[in-house]
Amino acid sequence: MSRVGRLPVTVPSGVQVNINGQNVSIKGPKGSIARTFAPGVTIQMENGHIVVQRESDLPTLRALHGTTRALINNMVTGVSTGFTTTLEIEGVGYRAEMSGKDLVLYVGYSHSVPVNPPDGVTFDVDTKTRQIKVMGFDKEQVGQVAANIRSIRPPEPYHGKGIRYAGEKIRRKAGKSGKGKK
Fold first, then answer.
1. Domain count, the chain
2. Do 107 and 41 share a domain, yes or no?
3. Predicted model pTM
4. 18 in a structural domain
5. Does residue 89 share a domain with residue 51?
6. Which of 9, 63, 78, 144 would give a disulfide with 50, using CB separation of 3.0 to 4.6 Å?
7. pLDDT digits (tens, 9 = 90+) for 45-91
């Protein structure tokens, strides 16, 4: 039995769950998410908890068991509390600012780079600490938007300049060691 898959998902108050076979839709104060899961895994509501069970011990169903439970847990957490990913900007003259709902990055290019948020995602910029917060109720979408922002100017290994995740360690390279020997 999957250690993750056998745990029930607790549904907090204010969150509505609708299970129709393999289709699960969850609605909460932050938004609503609907997803269709693979056959072979049964999803049921029992006593205010969502329980995920698999039909047999086939390797593919064993893999789907824990994954399905984790995805449902992320859906419940997202619509109730939401997800946040923090990015840090490092470099002389590098900065970010808000222009309405859009994020505008100044990261060493000859032009500014605007980033439009998709539906369900918002940005927050702290100019003193040069941090960007990507917030939303869909964990997958928040992570993808943060990765797209990071890819605009990924951190480089010689000086460490660029956009990085909060707490990310950048492996630094030594660079040139001085005049060449003849």
1. 2
2. no
3. 0.88
4. yes
5. no
6. 9
7. 999 899 999 998 898 898 899 999 999 999 999 999 999 999 999 99
Q: Give the start-end residues of each E strand in 11-157.
A: 16-20, 23-27, 32-36, 41-46, 49-54, 83-90, 95-99, 102-106, 113-115, 121-126, 131-136
pLDDT bracket for residue 174 (50, 70, 90): confident
Residue 137 included in any domain: yes
- Determine the structural domain holding residue 48 and report its residue range: 9-80
Among candidate residues 154, 143, 101, 145, the one with its CA nearest the CA of residue 124 = 101
CB 32 within 8 A of CB 26: yes
Token pair 């169903």 in the structure block, residue: 61
CA distance 69 to 63: 11
